Amino acid sequence: METITVANVTQSLAKNIHPITAHDANVLYQHGTLALLVPGLLEGTTTIGELLKHGDTGIGTGEGLDGELIILDGVAYKIGQSGVAEQVPSDFTMPFANSHRAAFQFQCSREDIGLEALNERIVEANGRANTFFSVKVHGTFSFMKTRAVIKQQAPYPTLLEVADRQAIFLRHDVTGTMLGYFSPVMFHGAAVAGFHEHFLSDDHTFGGHVLDAVLSHGEIYSQVFDTLVTHLPVDDPEYRNHDFSQDNIAEAISSAEGDTAH
Ligand SMILES: [Zn+2]
């Protein structure tokens, strides 16, 4: 697995973070579209092994919304309804996931800042509201609230129906990595417009889909993409035959996923 290291950057590069084209570090790979989760097309149509061919870093969800996935340094972890992170095998399947080849650039250090303000400033500093980028925050969080959806069985419910079938976790003074993707508003439906962030503690005992957080102190890294590759599950008959015109996709995604502040 190839990783590009941006070594020993000590000052803020916020205004100078551009796509790095070497080793395809400018490419965000996505399997599926968030829209397919809305009517409950939750069958796993790719594997961790396949996803890792396109990157060493990423997030996703398992078949039947089985947990929250986070991939760091080529290793995939799942946080299920227990809140404990466990490594998943390469044949683990997913309906939706993102990955990319890590080549993060240091953006800034931050202290005592809530998630909403932090996310706003990351976009402002970058001037990247219409750009896909990944954000990685490593540090100590005085407060971290995450969730994990409870695995659903076929026939699968809709995204709105599973919204209340989730476990919520709270931790204080936890050190770890928050990894996420920012998607421009015009791509709402293909992804969540705005940030979609997952967390993994350094001791791998805790994590999940980030609902709210306060960063006590930490470093913020960004990686900007100029290319989005979307791989669709065209061999899945349920996906092929589904009529999306009846699904209120944008609204359902906003309701179930879009507001990370609550
Ligand atoms: Zn998530």
UniProtKB/TrEMBL annotation:
<dbReference type="GO" id="GO:0045151">
    <property type="term" value="P:acetoin biosynthetic process"/>
</dbReference>
<keyword id="KW-0456">Lyase</keyword>
<comment type="pathway">
    <text>Polyol metabolism; (R,R)-butane-2,3-diol biosynthesis; (R,R)-butane-2,3-diol from pyruvate: step 2/3.</text>
</comment>
<comment type="similarity">
    <text>Belongs to the alpha-acetolactate decarboxylase family.</text>
</comment>
<dbReference type="GO" id="GO:0047605">
    <property type="term" value="F:acetolactate decarboxylase activity"/>
</dbReference>
<dbReference type="Pfam" id="PF03306">
    <property type="entry name" value="AAL_decarboxy"/>
</dbReference>
<dbReference type="InterPro" id="IPR005128">
    <property type="entry name" value="Acetolactate_a_deCO2ase"/>
</dbReference>
<keyword id="KW-0005">Acetoin biosynthesis</keyword>
<keyword id="KW-0210">Decarboxylase</keyword>
<protein>
    <recommendedName>
        <fullName>Alpha-acetolactate decarboxylase</fullName>
        <ecNumber>4.1.1.5</ecNumber>
    </recommendedName>
</protein>
